[in-house]
Amino acid sequence: MLKTLFPTLSRLRFTVQLVMLFVTVYGSVIVGTYMAGKISNALPALSCAYDQMNGGYCVLIPTQHILHHRIGEAMVRAQQLTFTMILPLLMSFLTFFAFFFVLGKAFCGWVCPLGTLQETVGMIGRRFGIGLRRLGDDDLVAARRVRPVKWLLLLGLVFLLPLLTGLGVTPHSLGNPYCDICPSRVATTLLTGNTDQLALRVSDGWSFALGATSDFLIGFMIVGGLAIRQPFCRICPLLAFNSLFQRLSPLRLTKTRHENCGQCRICSEACPMDIQEISLHEGRKAYTEDCTLCGRCAEYCPQDGTIRLKWGPVTLFSSRREYYKNKVRGELPDGSVKPVRFVKRGEASDAR
Length: 352
Ligand code: SF4
Ligand code: SF4
Ligand code: SF4
Hints:
This protein has helices at residues 9-26, 28-31, 33-39, 60-103, 106-111, 113-127, 141-166, 177-181, 183-191, 205-224, 237-244, 266-270, 277-280, 296-300, 321-330, 345-351; strands at residues 251-255, 307-311, 314-318. The chain has 352 residues and is mainly α. The termini are far apart.
């Protein structure tokens, strides 16, 4: 006869059932309420949590609790995060990339109002014969020294400080520090006749310092801009931001080597950003982080097809000797034109 451990299984089962019925209904009387809660709050049997004397309760209670209070609330928070943070961020970046894909860094050279204003100030300087002060006339050192500033401003004022302020580490007045020093804020509001943005806020030291920096920058941009081309662009964090993505746009500057390159250097002279690489290098190295895609180098290069402004495979503009000859008749590469001369009335009639 085959021997088994439990000859009468049904009896054993019934015994266990009775014991467990007692444990699940009155269990805490034996082990204590505290222990019961600790060791058996996820039983795979319907042991009811509403029974205050039970030895433990079933897994369905914590499951509902977790779904209700933890996962449900976390999903609401995630949804809020999606709507308040991820979607706006995504929309901003998608919009940026859609625009940037079409025009790339030409937003600097062709669209930015502050770029246009600086160019206008520079034109006034040239008109009145104010000598041009160039950065990096002979080598790349001066331009290279200035270049990291825009990256520092981007990292510190656009990314780091606003984040630290949001986390409560830095004071509220450092929440949008770049806008607080941006000369475009002052310049464009001034153009609408509003002088409010010139006023210094004295609510705290940081606000005052940022406002003073902004006023200094706009002053420097206007006075310095008479002698230095595009003075603010050289430290502009948006130029740094744009240059991060400059390879993503099909609009770009291409440069091949001509035997005169490195000697004539007219393109660098014409460049409002004093970029020396455009005359010294070719290919990718010629299209630097400071380029605003204004196209002046292509206009002033006297060699056919050496510098091109291209959108993908399409050449939008190419350097041409004939174009160069016509161009220099009106304006020299450095932007100088015949200075305005104030003549007295008598002199004018003598001249006639
Ligand atoms: S570098 Fe800055 S200020 Fe200059 S044109 Fe570009 S965005 Fe405008
Ligand atoms: S102007 Fe033309 S030829 Fe002269 S250095 Fe520049 S790219 Fe070369
Ligand atoms: S390299 Fe050419 S396109 Fe770029 S900023 Fe200078 S002149 Fe303009």
